[in-house]
């Protein structure tokens, strides 16, 4: 999801893959605190999840991701996590 639509060097691709792995690790480790029941319906809870995504990716994504691209990818991921939660799919579907 982070690479799609971007022309990246091999080094940048590796940084994006690392960013993805680190994000997954962070979200799974903090799953019980971040993904409370119906988190996506509560503005504060969804902001907390979004902030976790932002802090993780900000630390790892290459500088070629400008502000617009960064915000676009953050929103794409947040929407993906909301969809997963709503559909009770994957590792987010097991939250309760």
Stretches with pLDDT under 50, minimum 5 residues? none
SS element count, helices: 4
Helix share of residues?
55-70%
State the distance separating the first and last CA atoms: 26 Å
Shape: elongated
Taken as a percent bin, the fraction of beta residues is: under 5%
Query: Which class best fits the helix and strand makeup?
Result: mainly alpha
Radius of gyration over alpha carbons?
13 Å
Q: What's the helix-strand series? A: HHHH
- The overall pLDDT average reads 91
Q: What's the layout of helices and strands?
A:
Blueprint: H1 10-29, H2 31-34, H3 43-60, H4 67-86
Description:
- Helices cover 65% and strands 0% of the residues.
- The chain has helices spanning 10-29, 31-34, 43-60, 67-86.
- The protein starts with 9 loop residues before the first helix and ends in a 10-residue tail after the last helix.
- The model has no long low-confidence stretch (mean pLDDT 91).
